[in-house]
Amino acid sequence: MKKLIVLALSLVVSTLYAQDCPLNSSPCLPGDRVIVTSGSFDKSAASISTITLTPSNGVGVTVSSYGTLDDAHEFWFLVPTDIADGAYTLKVKQIVKPATPGAVVTPSDLADLSPGQISLKSPSITAVSPAAAFVGDQNFNRVTVIGAGFNRWSDVAPDDKAKASIHVQFSEKPTPVACTVGNSTNCLKTELVNDRQINLEFHGLDSKREYFNGPLKFGVEVGRAWTPPATLSLVDSGIHMPMVVAVLIFVFLLLVVFLLLLSGKALVQKMSGKSYYLSALFLDVPTNTYSLSKCQFYAWTGAAVLGYVYLAVSKSFVQGSDVFPDIPSGLPGILIASVGTVVVSSGISSAKGDKGAGNPGPNLSDFIASGGIVAPDRLQFVIWTIIGIATFLSIVMLSDPSSINDLPTIPPGFLQLMGISSAGYLAGKLVRKAGPTINAITVSGSPDKITFQLTGSGLSRSALFNIDQLPIYPDTIVGPDGQPGLPEIVQSDPAISDPDYARILKVTVVKAPPMWLAGPHNLTITNPDAQRATWPFQVFRVDQVAIDSSTSTLTISGACLDSNLKVACTVGTTSIAVTRSNPVNTPDTYQGKFTGISKGDVVDVTISDNAGMTVTPKVTAT
Q1: pTM of the entire structure?
Q2: What is the pLDDT of residues 37-85, one digit of tens each?
Q3: Which residues share a beta bridge with 589?
Q4: What are the structural domains, with CATH classification, of the chain?
Q5: What is the spatial distance between Cα 374 and Cα 429, in angstroms, rounded to a whole number?
């Protein structure tokens, strides 16, 4: 009796929630109610025995829920919810009431069924876009569900819930409640667009409810039929979050490196009056230039860090993965090649000498030039490095953070190309001779005979020399004996197996133009292979010297009379010290105080600077 009551209640509930199958417009759904008409059936004289749905090939399915309607020739049944899609032939057996009570009756088939066949098509989800829905400007996650069988009632508006009922259910999380006018947080808004599209909007979901911890499984119910489960991911941030986080972490790492360099004063490079902190990473200290091999290594390292952080953030915070992302194949090879290039490049410089320094102080042209001359091997090395890094970062940063699964693989062909590029760069260093580098210039002598002592490396005595683009003519250069000749090698360069190259080179020039004795100038040495180096120097000029014995003041007028100037006076055999007393430091005036000079004394005034340049005029005190 209890089983009969439960069965009856189930039948009533199923009937109440079932939707009638629109036989004339669309396939039926599992769980639909199908109404059948048969002129051979009369519920007053017969009852339904069994209803079977038989596919074109396979075993038939016996229907468990069925009944009759008010019309004497109509009956109904519910399509089983676990039945497969396809076309089915309807077979119905009836039991006719016997004329004689107690007589045995054999069930007979109903032949005139309408419909005699039905088609079943379950709703399905073929795509969810986007795979990870980010929170938009209006604080909701919007998802478009693409599939089939969402709305079979083409003649009914999608919002007619009496027939076009759509429900969404999460498999492992509580489904947010339906949004209403007064409810805009922790709720779900469902929009049925057409038979193939549903729009879902998740408004103000609370992250504590774990909706943002990776993919969520969900299903869509159409009538009483559910789609197979699909997955979607909700992200409680904007789509640019992984890129922003990657850049911020990269900047943080740069800041850490900068602070490390700042804390170690030995790592701070001072060149040409400037201090270099972060760029000290790229400096080639012996030549006072930027190192291309170091820059290439750091550039690929930075690109790898940016790409890896973007991947890790996307996998962890967007996709909800707890797997440690792997490094792509090919990237370690490029980093190893970059390290090898740095090491081999340093070895070549130690064995053959450094490249030319070019203009004083590091500048960006150092990456493509050697000794002020554009080197094709360096240029192509820079170009392919830029192309490789730009392509790698573009692919990474333009990848959808909801679907990125790995960093782009470096193709074998590109690895070979980078290897060839590195080999060409190193071969260029091997073939070229060492270039000149100047670390200091000392100027000594007098206006009639000036000696420039150059300290550095790779200084060829056969080089050409220029001051401010004006040549020092070879016939004005004299040797140690005072006769015209080549510059004097004070110390040869042991790193270069050529006796013509020096570490310290002395260039003595006679008949120097007066313009060299005023203001800062640049001296350029150009080796026979056209590599050059430039370094600034400064020589003072004295125009007039006056001694006022009444105020014990010595005044010098000229140019470049800076704080390095040293002044001493001699009267006969007596040396008199002079103390600088300039009220204002000006490069064209020197004032000093002394004691012990009287009016009419003939004074030998010795004026020199810390580079050794000396002028000794005779002055009569007034």
Answers
A1: 0.62
A2: 999 999 988 999 999 999 988 889 999 999 999 899 999 999 998 888 8
A3: 557, 586
A4: 2-120 (2.60.40), 124-235 (2.60.40.10), 241-347+360-406 (no CATH), 437-538 (2.60.40), 541-620 (2.60.40.10)
A5: 13
